[in-house]
Amino acid sequence: MNQALSLYRRLVSLPGGRWLYGRLICFKAPYFATIAPRFLALEPGRCEVAIRDRRRVHNHIGTVHAIALCNAAELTAGMMTDVTIPSSMRWIPKGMTVEYLAKAKGTLVALAEPESPAREASSGYAWPVLVKVRNEAGEDVFRARIDMWVSPRKAA
């Protein structure tokens, strides 16, 4: 089993485990700490992360900043990709297309799911991941399509 998924499954049932998991992920990738993510779900083919509406992520009009939404999308898509693709493959984001649908206020939840099943391959390929960010009313406020570049791991 993937190391990130194994750790998530061990921590999720503990008090504060979801918070701790988010902190550990941010320790490995510090930039994501700017959004203080809380993992709600992580499994092959699906990742769900919540971000709180705090001044730290606001823009000049008091809503969640566009780049904070992009951070949530990239984190969610990346973690879903990491626990979904075959262990013989690696990944890196290659491109992102975003849509801002409404003002982002309140606690937001990003959900990442792939457009197609992951596969093992002898050469690299683009693997699109869809991310929706919803507000507390369940309305989509942001959408992203992230192309992950999935390629074989180099031999040691």
TrEMBL record:
Listed CDD domains: PaaI_thioesterase (cd03443)
Pfam families: DUF4442 (PF14539)
Xref: InterPro entries: DUF4442 (IPR027961), HotDog_dom_sf (IPR029069)
Protein name per the record: Acyl-coenzyme A thioesterase PaaI-like protein
Organism encoding this protein: Dyella japonica
